[in-house]
Automatic annotation (TrEMBL):
It comes from the Bacteria. Pfam families: YfhO. The lineage of its organism: Bacteria, Bacillati, Bacillota, Bacilli, Bacillales. The chain crosses the membrane at residues 6-27, 77-97, 109-131, 166-185, 205-225, 237-264, 284-307, 314-335, 347-364, 371-389, 395-418, 425-444, 834-855. This is YfhO family protein. InterPro entries: Uncharacterised_YfhO. The keyword Transmembrane helix applies. PANTHER family: INTEGRAL MEMBRANE PROTEIN (PTHR38454:SF1), INTEGRAL MEMBRANE PROTEIN-RELATED (PTHR38454). It comes from Planococcus glaciei. Keywords: Membrane, Transmembrane, Transmembrane helix.
Amino acid sequence: MKEKLLNLPFYLICLGLAFLAHGVFLYQWTRQHYMIGINDGGSQMLPFKHLLYNQYTNGEFFYSFDFGLGAGTFSELSYYFSTSLVFLVSVVIVFALESLHAIGSPDVLFWANAAVWINVIRLSLVLFITARLFMYMKITRFPALLGASIYGISGMYLRHATYWEFFADAFLWLPILIFGIEKVFREQKPGWFLFAVSISLIDNFYFSYINFLLAGLYILARLAIRQEPNETGWLKAVAVFLVTGIIGFGISAVSFVPAVYAFLNNHRPDFEQEIPWVDLTDNILFTSRFIVLPAIFVLFLFCFSLYRHKTFRLFAVLGIAGTLLHFSPVAASVFNGFSAPQYRWEYFLSLVAGGTVAAGFQHIKTLTRRQFAVAGVLTAAVYMFAVWMDQIFDWGAQSTALILLSLLLTFLLTLAVLQFKQPSVKVLLAGFLIVSALGFANIYQVEKILEDGRIEHVNKDLLTSSGYDTAEVRGLIEAIHEREDGVSYRIDWMEGVRNNTPIVQDFRGLSAYSSILNKNLLYFYLYDLQIDMGRESVSRYATLGNRANLHSLLQGKYAIKEKGDPNVPYGFTEMMSSENYIVYENGNPLPFARAASAVYSEQQLESQPAIVREHAMLTGIVLDGSEASAALPAAKEQTDAFEVQEAEATFRDGNLAVSGDTGGIDLVRSDSAFAEGDLYVSFRLEHISPNKGFPLTVNGYETSRKANTSIYRTYVDDITVRIPAEDTIKIRMPKGVYQLTNLQIFEEPYNVLQEQSQKNTGLQALSIDGSQVNLSYDNSADEKYLAVNIPFERGWKAAVNGQEAEVLKANYGFAAVPLSEGANDITFTYRPPFFYLTLSISLFSLLIGGLYVFWSSRKTRI
């Protein structure tokens, strides 16, 4: 009981340290600057919090038509916040405050303001939990707090919490996981390990993967370096870990399985660049963005007599192993699922460094001055080597000065501890080390995050200005909402490169940005329809390339453009305007649900150009794997009507060498008969340069292509661009060497679209309520199928007139159902993939886990 009563003041100390660790960011907060990354922080973290909070507090937990063209948020946003325990607790607290009218309705700006406070609270818990772990391992309170500070008050915590806030949750679960491992070894009690496995898998499948790899390393080291004479034998311990781990997986099934399914149903090109085994360029003693090892840790590693103590030996060995792994991009790739190397796992190195320091500090008095002298010389040599190896070392940086001062004072105070043998000097050393960690954390915030990461620009002005959330555009969107009484219209608008603008500005748009997206939609954009998004990049889709057919098919009823922008889709006319923007309305809208009997197969259309596929979706329905029942639609190819002319470039046999600052080819038409409609210009373009991206323009249309070495490259080099009908097509790119092949030009007079838009629709009623869509359709023409604008993904169920119906994949990325003749009442319902099965497994596993823990507890007492 006494120990429990001591927990509160000890936690308050941790809370105070967490506040001090965020000193710079707290000061920035008083100036309306936020602890949010300027790119992913503003483009993903804030929008997703805003979206999920609105969903959860309105009783919707599974699906949203406000996320891109529609998505299962429970599974696809599991990588972010949909199952994050920290976020869910935040939702409960914020909703309670909102219900009590203590705060207004939370918006994106609210979550930006709240970020630093959430990170402070989380860090206080990290410090408290980690210190308790070290104390359980028989390290006294003060050294345990010192070790926890080295773990939590680190650059990586601040980096994760700022740029990708959900990453920082892993700092909580790793020490709990290791605590669970220690409970199995020391007491044969699996309860904490079961809890840690379950909570990790529920919280975030990606970091549970990383944490389990790290836990595996820890278990291997633990089997080799026993801590207690009566510990659980290795065979029994491994059996406990396996059984408990399986039960933990079962408990998490309702969250983990849909998340993994979403990950597998995502599309991202394979990382094809060579990954070296060793890379020594990162200076982890001075300038690393990921982790900077404290001087006391390096010094203790060379105090060889400390290795007699088992706890020190365990953490030191893991610290050395972790340091070596840090310099291996292959290891970074393994921790990132064997993809591009990502240095996100080094919080483990911070943890074992903290454990090394805590255990070493506890036994510091056992060192002799001679042992210290040897360790000091070796430490100084390592630091000099780090400076010599660093080709861009900055002697004038604030962090350099602090690290060198810390190194000197660490030597002096450690020597004083050994010389005077006084507790007060030892306390002085520990206090200095904690203050150094706090000082470095705040300097890291200034140099690595505010300045290098440009976070100093993330303020209220940015989040309410052009490029993020323009008030002028918001006014236009509100005017559209007031004018519309439908539930399915979409607006083509995006602030700059912020693909999640629709979430921020509360409208249904045509763009999305997330590390996990529906593969069917990505294929629809990248391969099936070759929709250029104005910017090549993975993990996103955007707009519809100003292609009128696609706008009509996907309810793109409005487009907002800056005044003077020539890229207005065909058939769109000005509806309203403001000082800088114009709202255009689609003159050829199509309904949310369309019936068809003409069936085209994806295989039938495989070699056809994008315009033919558009016409197939307009005149019928495209099904995957079905037998075609209709002849292919016609397309007017006019490639031969255009003559190729060089423009500050040489073009021979598909090889294009641009000699001017900007050049390319002109396609000049000799016959000017076609004047009404658009041209579809398709070609394959590859840049013969390993490390340089470039802009590409086709008449008034602008897009950009990634460097060949970019990890964000799509590797999709087949491009289709829609432009208004012109006699001359100018394709331009910067000076360089390219391959330009497979050139095709098609006319699109939009006869097919206009004919389809004038047809009477059988859609009688439509309601969309999150994960349920209800509609009534009068199939008096006895059509065979009904295609709906619901993105196809596993989890959708359908009922037609009360009878279960098969949900088909139609039009490359959307859903359809078979129709009955006459009136059809149709209900679509979404639940995460395998939801009811995994829910049953979770409940059953929870029961089994409770019985297993109870049985294990009784057995150890007996």
